[in-house]
Amino acid sequence: MKRNELFQERSSAMKKYSVVLILSLCVFFAGCRSEEAPQTENTAAPGGESSASAIILDGSAISAESGVTVDGATATVTASGTYEVTGTLENGQIIVDTAGTVDLILNNASIHCETSSPIQIKNADHIYVTLAEGSSNELSDGTAYELVPPETEPDATLFSKSDLTIRGEGTLTVTANYRDGITSKDSLVIESGNLFVTAVNHAIKGKDFLCVENGTITVDAGVDGMKATNDSASSLGYVEIKGGTIAITAQDEGISAITDVTISGGTIRIDTANNGIKTNGAIRVSSGTLEIQTEDKGLICAEQSIADEAEVSVNGEKITGT
Fold this sequence. Notes:
11-stranded mixed β-sheet, mainly beta
């Protein structure tokens, strides 16, 4: 019996178990591995009060500078550039609809939208959500969106149809009462920041890929914790974790990918009622710490690769090699 099959057999025979991977081999990654992945350099103006156009939220009203149109409690960004969002919006949204690159700086911003996504990216070359240093930001939605059939989107509290990068040294709390927490229909890169995502469906989802470079991420998902969903190209649909501290509580898969899951650093803890990590491709772990608590299988994949130096234990029983 192959080692991978033996691993899965041990896992499925147990009602509740822990998988702990403590890995020490350092492997260099030049970035998210797909050649189709965009660079995460910001081509918009540098963030900061001196260079950003202001979007000021005040209860049910919005005031904004150039590049933004305001209609009641909706602000639409129509030009590329950097925009700083401050204040509280009780029931409204910010929409980005432009051909350029946009950096939304959230600086103590709180947005609730009862019938749609509080932040919706309809169109952009690339969207950056920057969490201002020391800031505390919140996004939340209602339990039902007003969608005209056959439309099914947006379907996430932070929803983007463009490449999305989240970064900064602030905090973002996302409460998704309708469906998903954070969704990108292109790529999703988390460079840094403190993210707390609670979702009735999936917590964090990138279509082409989901790449975590650093930051602190805590998710509580009614279905999957973190996932990538593109099944149309063999080079896409992957999850890559290079660093950070990640805690996932999920009712289905902790991490799910169409192709591969690659872990080269960070500390990851998964507590799930279903599978810890599930992929149709390979699970490759070269460094970092991975701990899975599950009522089902720990790792499900076509192929698994673990560095020779790694210490892998399943309920105290060590497994080494590939």
